[in-house]
Specification:
- The chain has 893 residues and is mainly α.
- The chain is 65% helix and 3% strand.
- Among the domains are: 6-274, Tetratricopeptide repeat domain (Serine Threonine Protein Phosphatase 5, Tetratricopeptide repeat, Alpha Horseshoe); 382-490, Collagenase ColT, N-terminal domain (Glutaredoxin, 3-Layer(aba) Sandwich); 620-762, Serine Threonine Protein Phosphatase 5, Tetratricopeptide repeat.
- Helix 9 (162-174) runs antiparallel to helix 10 (178-191), helix 18 runs antiparallel to helix 19 (331-344) and helix 28 packs antiparallel against helix 29.
- The longest helix has 29 residues, at 2-30.
């Protein structure tokens, strides 16, 4: 009995010791000591060749360190020792693929499914359920069923099983369901906090839309495992997106030091070589990526996807076709090719491929969204003039479609002549009344609400005014901006950095209309003179994961300022030369140096230029910024500083107004640029700073709110005198106009609003008030001008058409009145009979046969409409043609 007990104790101790050794080795692997884990695993497998966990660890360590052939030897040996395992065959599947043995890998999947199918009760352990689920998915099983009947069951049985969270998250990522993926990885982290694999999965879920959260997750994973291959690759891709190619290569080198044959390392190096116009290096890198698996479709899929992300859609689609040549059913490549073709304007094949993907994989969110969108697009109207093919909702096309074509034609004529290019015909423009449809067409997924429009080179997508509920956007400026992208992208063959592309488009907005684009304002002045300028050589990075919306706006503005600097100092011809060199494949910093000056000097001179621009903003104003006592965050804001930017202007009140400071106690200044004042009231401080922007603005605001309108004039008039370019709903101009209106000073109000209207591209309230004032004073030209300004922002409401129609008639502009009445009718007027009649009358004046139809429609609405009956008689020739006069609705009985 004692001897049996001793044997039991020794055996238990040995098992416990082996378990501890296994846990220590797995910890080595988890924390990135792959060679250490490999050495221990090799020793243990030699001692215990049938130990499944050690065999798995050995195989994973060999794969991770790029020893693919050794991994093959190890896994085949392991399979001979453990014939009833399902985890080892699944590991063999990965090893076979790494060595290019696709037939053997496929056979593993079939054998696993048959094995589990014959003896399901033998494989109910949670790890086995996860393996079976992965195999079943490859065999075409229903993803939802796998998730619910296998993965969720395994998770319930063993909540701390990491593999089930990884499998669930990977499944969601494969279907582009990023929200579900994030949830699954987060669930895993609740059980296994700080696990680097789960953190990396969470980062992948955040990557498409939440760059800051992605980086946060990656950094947390790297704290646990500084050699985590997946995280290093994500960071390398992130640096590549910011065009920081040196940093990207540095990160790829770290992965290569772990695994010199990692296919994704070489795929990314191929992309880097392409972006830097190194064709031989690109070819060599792709060959290295395919060394062990020559027909790996993921290599070309990955290269092509990144190139398409950088707008190299032709090159990207070629790689997807190659991926499909390797594996005709590789859905990621087919889905990406569909997107590429749609962005290239090759719509028939693009939509067909998207439908193929959706039929095969009904759970793929992107494919479902695209096919649903295709059905919606089938209901759109199509307008064309040879140069453009415009798709809009039928309702919006009838309202302002003609103006869209006219505006695009103006942009084409102006910009093509300026940049010396004949763009491809036609340019496709799709305008979506629903933001979610715009996002799906543009990005494949709903979301990205900040974008107004996007250009792919020959295809433009844009939100319509209907999608901008709650804020005003000048759609004419948006389309001008996007068509400028058409010009520059085609001129460079899509080989230009984002900052230059956006910078030129914002710059050209300002050139076309001084009210468009972005301009220096108090916040930008502060950022320029502070430390917010990004070096020109790093500007594309400013668009990647900006900390705030303001930072993104500023990236657009700074980019346009660089373009303005180049155009002013070196000339437009040099700017065009830069674009031509980019089209030949020259790297941006080399192209800049060739046509301007060395990058270091260029950045120094640009900084000086930007500072000069900032200091030119209202130089007569004092820009010191007082702060509330005690260092509280409520900075004096006063009026909003002015215009916003692309991709979208935030609401004009995005800067929080501080509470009343009229009787506040001491002012405390705890940051650079703030005035150094203590033990002084705001009123006293303001008196000592009579030209301070913030003091004047706050004083005006308080006086206005207290209805001391005459007194409010003083600071407001000083502000508009010293800062005449300020815009916005709560600018000094707008507030001064409100003061004049409150005091009944109509002429002064009109003069002030007229000055503001010239400066502000989307001030619909200003335009509407000017129409009212213009009509009251019988100033038809002013009414027409402001109606057109209004329609450039929102053509989907009745008031501007009503004002425009009447003013056009008074100005004897028959064509203008016809256009106005047609638009008015499309918006369902409360008295359609009157509008039909007036349109008929205008058409009759120009002998348009459509007059008869319109007058009949008027009579259909109001059969006893006398003036309409009289007009019908004239049209039918029963009475002599009228020589003039204005019939109106007064004849309606």
């Amino acid at each position: 009995m004692r001897s049996l007990l001793s044997v039991f104790i020794v055996t238990a101790f040995a098992l416990s010791s082996r378990a501890a050794e296994l846990k220590e080795a797995q910890e080595l692997f988890l924390t990135g000591n792959y060679t250490g884990a490999l050495a221990v695993a090799q020793q243990q497998v030699e001692k215990n060749p049938d130990a499944e966990d050690w065999q798995l660890l050995l195989s994973r360590a060999l794969l991770t360190t790029g020893q693919y052939q050794n991994a093959y030897t190890a896994i085949t040996n392991a399979l001979q020792e453990s014939r009833w395992s399902v985890r080892l065959p699944w590991q063999a599947h990965e090893v076979y693929l790494a060595n290019g043995l696709t037939n053997e890998a496929d056979q593993v999947v079939q054998d696993l499914i048959q094995k589990v199918g014959r003896h399901p009760s033998d494989f109910r352990e949670p790890p086995n359920l996860v393996v079976f689920g992965r195999a079943a998915l490859l065999a075409g099983a229903d993803p939802k069923r796998v998730l619910e009947t296998l993965y969720d069951v395994a998770k319930k049985a063993d909540p701390k099983l990491k593999d089930v969270y990884l499998a669930s998250g990977d499944l969601a990522l494969d279907k582009h369901d990023y929200a579900l993926a994030a949830k699954r990885f987060q669930d895993g982290l609740k059980q296994l906090p700080e696990d680097p694999d789960l953190l990396c999965g969470l980062a992948r879920a955040y990557a498409p839309s939440e760059h800051a959260l992605m980086v946060e997750s990656v950094e947390a994973a790297l704290e646990r495992n500084s050699n985590h291959v997946g995280c290093l690759l994500l960071l390398a891709e992130h640096a590549m997106d910011a065009e920081d190619y040196d940093e990207s290569e540095h990160l790829l080198a770290r992965v290569a030091a772990i695994n010199p044959w990692h296919s994704e390392v070489w795929a990314y190096r191929a992309v880097l070589a392409h972006m830097q116009n190194q064709p031989q290096a690109e070819t060599n890198a792709r060959s290295a990526a395919l060394k062990f698996w020559p027909t790996n479709p993921r290599v070309d899929y990955l290269i092509g996807s990144k190139l398409s992300q950088y707008y190299r859609f032709a090159e990207g689609s070629a790689h997807q076709r190659q991926a499909l040549a390797f594996s005709k059913d590789y859905l990621p490549a087919k889905a990406q090719l569909a997107q590429d073709l749609l962005r290239l304007g090759q719509e028939a094949e693009g939509w067909h491929l998207a439908e193929e993907v959706q039929k095969v994989d009904s759970y793929d969110v992107e494919a479902f969204n695209l096919t649903t969108l295709h059905q919606a697009l089938g209901k759109f109207a199509t307008l064309t003039n040879g140069d453009f093919l415009v798709r809009m909702s039928k309702h919006e096309a009838a309202v302002y479609g003609a103006r869209v074509l006219e505006l695009l034609s103006q942009a084409r004529s102006n910009l093509c002549a300026k940049y010396g290019i004949e763009v491809q015909r036609p340019t496709t423009v799709e305008i979506f009344p629903e933001q979610k449809d715009f996002a799906v067409r543009t990005f494949g997924m709903p979301g990205n609400p900040g974008y107004l429009g996007v250009c792919f080179g020959t295809v433009i997508t844009a939100n319509s005014p209907a999608a901008h509920a709650g804020h005003s956007v000048n759609w004419e400026a948006v389309l001008w901006h996007e068509f400028c992208h058409v010009v520059t992208l085609q001129l460079t063959h899509n080989k230009m950095p984002r900052w230059l592309s956006e910078g030129i488009s914002v710059y050209e907005e300002r050139q076309a209309n001084p009210a468009w684009g972005q301009h220096m304002n108090p916040k930008y002045r502060e950022m320029v003179l502070g430390d917010s300028l990004t070096p020109v050589s790093k500007l594309s990075g400013a668009f990647i994961a900006p900390h705030t919306d303001l930072d993104l706006q500023f990236a657009y503005y700074e980019s346009s300022l660089v373009v303005e600097f180049i155009a002013q100092k070196f000339g437009t011809e040099k700017l065009k030369a830069i674009l031509r060199d980019l089209g030949q494949g020259m790297e941006i910093n080399q192209a800049l140096a060739k046509s301007t000056e060395p990058m270091e000097k260029l950045e120094e001179d640009f900084t000086e230029f930007a500072h000069a621009e900032a200091n030119r903003l209202a130089p007569g104003l004092d820009w010191e910024k007082p702060k509330l006592a005690g260092g509280r965050e409520g900075m004096l804001q006063g009026m909003n500083p002015g215009r916003g930017s692309r991709p979208r202007r935030p609401s004009r009140d995005s800067q929080t107004n501080s509470p009343s400071l009229e009787n506040s106690p001491a002012l405390s200044l705890n940051e650079p640029g703030s005035a150094s004042v203590t033990n002084e009231t705001f009123a006293a401080w303001s008196a000592r700073h009579p030209t301070n922007f913030y003091a004047l603005a706050e004083s005006a605001k308080q006086l206005f709110e207290d209805k001391k309108y005459s007194e409010a004039k003083v600071p407001l008039q000083k502000l508009v005198e010293l800062y005449p370019d300020q815009t916005g709903d709560d600018s000094a101009w707008a507030m001064l106009a409100a003061v004049h209106r409150a005091l009944g000073e109509t002429n002064d109000e009109r003069q002030v609003l007229s000055k503001l209207a010239v400066k502000d591209a989307d001030a619909t309230d200003v335009y509407l008030r000017l129409m009212e004032l213009g009509e009251a004073s019988h100033d038809s030209p002013a009414v027409i001008e402001n109606a057109r300004r209004y329609l450039a922002v929102n053509p989907l409401v009745i008031p501007p058409y009503r004002f425009l129609a009447k003013a056009s008639e008074q100005a004897d502009d028959v064509k203008g009145s016809i256009t106005a009445y047609r638009g008015w009718l499309e918006l369902e007027p409360t008295d359609p009979a009157e509008v039909h009649f007036k349109l008929a009358r205008a058409l009759y004046r120009v002998h348009d046969p459509g007059a008869r139809r319109q007058v009949l429609q008027a009579l259909e609405e109001a059969p006893r409409y006398r003036a309409a009956l009289e007009l019908l008689l004239k049209i039918n020739g029963d009475q002599p043609q009228s020589t003039g006069g204005h019939a109106d609705a007064s004849g309606l009985e």
